[in-house]
Amino acid sequence: MKWKKLTVGPVQENTYIIYNNLNEAVVIDPGSEGKRIIQTIESLKVKPLAILLTHAHFDHIGAVDDVRERYNIPLYIHKKEADWLSDTKKNGSKYFGQSITAKPATHILTNTDNTLKIGNFSFEVLTTPGHSPGSVSYYLKSSGAVFSGDALFAGSIGRTDLHGGDQDVLINSIHEKLLHLPEETMVLSGHGPETTIGMEMDSNPFLSGF
């Protein structure tokens, strides 16, 4: 598996295009700049099969409809944030002077951690709430990578002062779900640079004591 990271929009959100040697692709969190995301997909000569959302804050959903309509592919989101796609208060765009929405998702994820198979991809869906109630992380065990959304960053964790945020819940999610992954696991976050589970266990100031 390979991935391409595009940093998009005014808050520098990371959109990921994951693809394999069969030229299948999955897009995670197309947050903004839909035209640029589509141009990158075309340049990679891959076929998108689905869009996966780690959560539904406005900076992660702004280009959902552009990509979905271009390729006629399904959208996956956790059930606790399904209605956030159309609610500018819950997705936060209203408070940043914007009105960002997306059409309803086609597939709803539940609270239970499970395996999601899309084409030749097999993701372990880890429920990691705290930054938002329906945050999830997508773990590709075969590739040693986890797409953590805004749960865990290099040297930091997600903010919890937005709708439904809870820092205690977030710390518990990271401890119970992400820090149990192998230390060499690459962490591909919703903002900022890549890191590893081991590096965050050793040096992340928010996770001291774990």
TrEMBL record:
InterPro entries: MBL_Glyoxalase_II, Metallo-B-lactamas, RibonucZ/Hydroxyglut_hydro. SUPFAM superfamilies: Metallo-hydrolase/oxidoreductase. Transmembrane segments: none annotated. GO terms for molecular function: hydrolase activity; metal ion binding. Residues 12-191 form the Metallo-beta-lactamase domain. SMART domains: Lactamase_B. Keywords: Hydrolase, Metal-binding, Zinc. This is Metallo-beta-lactamase domain-containing protein. Pfam families: Lactamase_B. The keyword Zinc applies. Its cofactor is Zn(2+). It comes from the Bacteria.
